[in-house]
Design goal:
Blueprint lengths: L17 H15 L25 E5 L5 E4 L6 E3 L2 H14 L4 E6 L5 H13 L4 E4 L15
Parallel strand pairs: 1-4, 4-5
Antiparallel strand pairs: 1-2, 2-3
Length: 147
């Protein structure tokens, strides 16, 4: 009796679910990515202690040549002409979110008058929490430490 072969088996990698896997990976990376909102490059001054800053804080950067950039923490930072514009920006942020923290990121070589102007503008806008960034390892603080 002669037996007949039932059929040939295709050898290969099944690719039917590859599109599903690719789609899930894209969704995963879109959900977990964290964009940097403040792209100003500054050389931070050194300090002895640094606290963890909250996410979604408003950022104000002052570069060594005096350029001031602002971001509410949800969009890319934009340059502003001077401290008076920082005041209007801060007033808008405080009006929308009264407890929002502000992070001041100033270059170590920037003249202090720029930093002082920004801090005065934040005080006039009634900002409750102001962080000054420095170059140091972070530590956990009980009070959240502004400084």
């Amino acid at each position: 009796m002669k037996l007949k072969a039932r059929g040939t088996q295709n050898e290969g990698i099944p690719t039917a679910s590859m599109a599903d896997i690719a789609f899930l990976l894209i969704i995963f990376f879109m959900v977990t990515i964290n964009f940097e909102v403040d792209k100003a490059t500054v050389a931070l001054p050194k300090s002895g202690l640094r606290f963890e800053i909250p996410k979604k804080s408003a950022y104000i950067s002052v570069t060594s040549n005096g350029v001031i950039r602002v971001s509410s923490g949800e969009e890319i930072s934009v340059p502003v002409p001077g401290p008076e514009n920082v005041l209007s920006f801060a007033v808008d942020v405080v009006a929308n979110n009264p407890g929002k923290a502000f992070v001041l990121k100033a270059d170590k070589d920037v003249p202090y008058r720029y930093v002082d102007g920004v801090i005065d503008a934040l005080k006039q806008a009634r900002a409750e929490v102001i962080y000054l960034l420095s170059e140091q390892e972070t530590v956990d603080g009980e009070d959240g430490g502004s400084g």
